[in-house]
């Protein structure tokens, strides 16, 4: 992943609403949700939601597919994992002892952390 792509993704997630929408779509992966269900779950007017979904789609974090008269949105789990890998790729400058200490301090389930 290049810095420019990462910056675009971080910009898309910089809104509380977009971050919450993305997390909702991650929770509902791989099937995703139609726009109306997202609006209902988030208690957001459709016009506001459309603005936020457009930014997420442009970043590549979310894809959209037409289903009849509905639009189904899905989180790009592979891209999300690429972002996590991008952020952690150079963790602790290859100092495994330091990384182990940070893992021990973290509240993140060890299954989701790199094994370096």
Descriptive report:
- A three-stranded antiparallel β-sheet has the order 1-3-2.
- The chain has a single domain, classed as Arc Repressor Mutant, subunit A.
- It is an alpha+beta fold.
- About 55% of the residues lie in helices and about 10% in strands.
- Helix 1 packs antiparallel against helix 4.
- It is elongated, with a radius of gyration of 17 Å.
- It is built from six helices and three strands; from the N terminus they run ααβααββαα.
- The model has no long low-confidence stretch (mean pLDDT about 90).
- It has helices at about 5-10, 15-25, 35-40, 45-60, 75-90, 95-105; strands at about 35, 60-65, 70-75.
Per CATH, what is the topology? Arc Repressor Mutant, subunit A
CATH class: Mainly Alpha
Termini, distance in Å? Answer: 19 Å
What is the CATH architecture annotation? Orthogonal Bundle
**Helix and strand sequence:** HHEHHEEHH
Low-confidence region ranges: none
The class by helix and strand makeup works out as alpha+beta
**Approximate strand percentage:** 5-15%
Largest sheet: 3 strands, antiparallel
- Strands, total number: 3
Number of structural units classed as domains: 1
- The percentage helix is 55-70%
Walk across the major sheet and give the strand order.
Answer: 1-3-2
Quick rundown:
This protein is an alpha+beta fold and 116 residues long. Helices cover 57% and strands 12% of the residues. The chain has a three-stranded antiparallel sheet.
């Amino acid at each position: 992943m290049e810095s420019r792509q990462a910056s675009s993704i971080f910009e898309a997630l910089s809104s509380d609403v977009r971050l919450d929408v993305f997390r909702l779509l991650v929770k509902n992966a791989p099937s995703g949700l139609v726009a109306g269900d997202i609006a209902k779950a988030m208690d957001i007017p459709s016009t506001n939601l459309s603005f936020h979904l457009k930014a997420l789609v442009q970043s590549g974090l979310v894809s959209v597919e037409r289903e009849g008269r509905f639009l189904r949105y899905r989180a790009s789990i592979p891209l999300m994992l690429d972002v996590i890998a991008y952020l952690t790729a150079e963790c602790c400058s290859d100092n495994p002892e330091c990384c182990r200490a940070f893992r021990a301090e973290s509240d993140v389930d060890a299954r989701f952390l790199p094994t370096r």
